[in-house]
């Protein structure tokens, strides 16, 4: 079995800003697994927040042995971007070998389209209101916040999109005091969900704190091993394949989270349709879907995912799976 890794860059449609900084392009790694007769591929987005770089993830993949399967991969690499791309490539390879779709191999029901959030990046209140107005027809908007001065931004987005369902992602940018002050206003403005209001290492402050709007663990939740540490703090978990280390663990985390009583959100890093395709399978029937990565790009893969009023559609086999 031969594994190849290439770097790909996709231009963004506009500058994308969160509380940690801005970007104008998505830098991804594409992993191809070839057995001589068939080829599978997957994509990952190394994330600096988790100590990952393009180089470090390439090195992890380069250190893999010549032969292993999906189950063996779980012991060879930790949860993270490297394992994600390889795991998804192995699923794609297995599907092509079998002449079936990945959802069939995984024992899942045939997937359908799911309504996805569309993300408005962090900006001035005036510009965020304009972004919201431009996208007011979308049923679900996600707004990036995470500063002590977010009240004006919340008001502006609601004014720009009075009928849209809104979720908020603070990206660990608030303190307990800021969150407590904003919480009643989140209710007043009809916010349906708040992602990661406090830093992952400081989220014990959520224990016993009133949560009038459901709070979702993002940076605090990576794989099934994260679940015990979330009790009493969070109501929902955000599953991203670059955190779980692939489709295999993402499906297991989804089932374990539901069994533990958590709501489920399926999210993404900013990547191409190849990165979103496996996540669409995890997103079937969950509470919140946030797989808008390709909508933020100025360019995408061949045979990209279809987005329409029904949401994001499952991939064609020509793309993945």
Average pLDDT reading: 96
Q: Tell me the strand order in the biggest sheet.
A: 4-5-6-7-8-9-10-11
Query: From the helix content, strand content and strand pairing, which structural class follows?
Result: alpha/beta
How much helicity do the residues have?
Answer: 25-40%
Q: Please write the string of helix (H) and strand (E) elements.
A: EEEHHHHEHEHEHEEEHHEHEEE
Q: Percent of residues in beta strands? A: 15-25%
Spatial shape: globular
Largest sheet: 8 strands, parallel
Poorly predicted runs: none
Kindly state the number of beta strands.
13
As a whole number of angstroms, the C-alpha radius of gyration is: 19 Å
Distance between the termini: 19 Å
- Count the helices. How many? 10
Summarize the structure.
The protein has 321 residues and is an alpha/beta fold.
Structural features, described:
It is a single chain. The model has no long low-confidence stretch (mean pLDDT 96). β12 and β13 (311-312) form a beta hairpin. By secondary structure, the protein is of the alpha/beta class. The longest helix is centred in the first third of the chain and has 18 residues, at 81-98. Strands 4-5-6-7-8-9-10-11 form an eight-stranded parallel sheet. α1 crosses α3 (81-98) and α5 packs parallel to α6. The chain has helices at 54-62, 70-76, 81-98, 102-105, 125-134, 151-160, 176-188, 241-244, 247-259, 273-282, and strands at 2-18, 21-34, 39-44, 118-120, 140-144, 165-169, 191-195, 215-217, 236-239, 263-266, 288-289, 307-308, 311-312.
Describe the SSE topology:
Elements: E1 2-18, E2 21-34, E3 39-44, H1 54-62, H2 70-76, H3 81-98, H4 102-105, E4 118-120, H5 125-134, E5 140-144, H6 151-160, E6 165-169, H7 176-188, E7 191-195, E8 215-217, E9 236-239, H8 241-244, H9 247-259, E10 263-266, H10 273-282, E11 288-289, E12 307-308, E13 311-312
Parallel strand pairs: 4-5, 5-6, 6-7, 7-8, 8-9, 9-10, 10-11
Antiparallel strand pairs: 1-2, 2-3, 12-13
Helix pairs in contact: 1-3, 5-6
